[in-house]
Amino acid sequence: MKLALTYLLTVVTIYFSMISCSSDDNIVEPGSSERIEKNIKAVLDSVIENTHVPGLVAGIWAPNEGVDLVYTAGVANLETGEPLSAEMIFRIGSNTKTFTNTVLLQLVDEGLISLDEKLSGYFPDYPRADEVTIEMLTNMRSGIFNYTELENFWSQITINPTKMWNPEELISSTQNQEYYFNPGTGFHYSNTNTIMIGKIIEMITGRSLESNIGTRIISRLNLINTTYLIAGTEIPGYHSKAYYAGEYDSSFPECSELIDVSWAGAAGSMLSDIYELKTYSEALAGGTFLSDQLQAQRLNCFDAGSSIGLKYGMGIFEYKGFYGHNGGMPGYTSLMVNSPERNCTIIVWYNCQLETTPTELLTVIPQLIFPDL
């Protein structure tokens, strides 16, 4: 979540650094499903062997190629050496944005709001709100300042990690900040956009965002381990320990339940597991939740200025036909993508937040399965 789209390395650097650190016996040419899975496992093992990532869980499903792989590596607890389990839930961070934006777009389909409406209709006192459309909030083209980039934001969390934040406070903290650019003329990843969307959903429906996500998405897909958390530090379920907050620091306290999740809210407060994210990501990319016309509009993605060529749409990104999102929270980072065309889903999470993230694997794993990429 914190600068989630900036922790990316180039394709050549990450791929060949992994390959060079693995034996010839581990890396083989793609071909049969067995060879593809062996290649993927070798890359995942190399993450544990050559970085500070304590552990990872990965689910890769490409049934047309015979790939059905659920794999864990590393440990869930650095002190005890407990292994990770694929059954564990984890903080999904900015993957939450796809849920929040899906609810908003459902309201668009229902005629309760238009993407052309101005932000001033909901936040009349916010600077330049009459220049910002609802669509600009969804695709990160509003130019509104990202509250997690405020100099004193993380210092406040460090001083008082259990502080409960409310959305109004997060939004108001950016009111005196200059826009990154004139609305609609650029791209900048800003959590403030999605916090605003969450509040707009509540204004329109008269119900909490938690309730909307619960009834419109979670219940519809029969998800039982996927939860929107309003506040609190607890992870209610079977989970790993979690480490680091953006960079390697062996003295940093274990942080799975250290910080009140309200700081992330509509932009990143949810929990899930790899199996339920598989179900959800396939529905998300496949258009289950929206009309065909609005789904096509959602997937019209713009250049996101990333080093690997990610493009960004309405609360969703695209990479070579794979649609989804990534997430980063203190202690957890993740990747969730699906390609409807190739019938392939990739879910990966690490129990840490470092510059090494699962998003880097997007430049490796799909190519191991589909050499034409």
Secondary structure layout:
Blueprint: H1 11-20, H2 33-50, E1 55-62, E2 67-74, E3 90-91, H3 96-109, H4 134-138, H5 153-159, H6 167-172, H7 191-205, H8 209-218, E4 227-228, E5 270-272, H9 274-286, H10 292-298, E6 302-303, E7 311-312, E8 317-319, E9 322-329, E10 332-339, E11 344-350, H11 365-369
Helix pairs in contact: 3-7
Overall pLDDT score: 93
Radius of gyration: 20 Å
Contiguous low-pLDDT stretches (5 residues minimum) are 1-24
Q: For the terminal residues, how far apart are their CA atoms? A: 27 Å
Main sheet summary: 8 strands, antiparallel
Helix percent band: 25-40%
- Strand residue percentage: 5-15%
Tally of alpha and pi helices: 11
Structural class: alpha+beta
Strand order, main sheet: write it out: 2-1-11-10-9-8-7-6
What's the overall geometry? Answer: globular
Task: Please give the number of β-strands.
Answer: 11
Can you give a write-up of this model?
With about 375 residues, the protein is of the alpha+beta class. The protein is built from eleven helices and eleven strands. The protein has helices spanning about 10-20, 35-50, 95-110, 135-140, 155-160, 165-170, 190-205, 210-220, 275-285, 290-300, 365-370; strands spanning about 55-60, 65-75, 90, 225-230, 270, 300-305, 310, 315-320, 320-330, 330-340, 345-350. An eight-stranded antiparallel β-sheet has the order 2-1-11-10-9-8-7-6, sandwiched between helices. Strand 7 (about 310) and strand 8 (about 315-320) form a beta hairpin. Helix 3 (about 95-110) packs across helix 7 (about 190-205). The longest helix is centred in the first third of the chain and has 18 residues, at about 35-50. It is globular, with a radius of gyration of 20 Å. The protein starts with 10 loop residues before the first helix and ends with a helix.
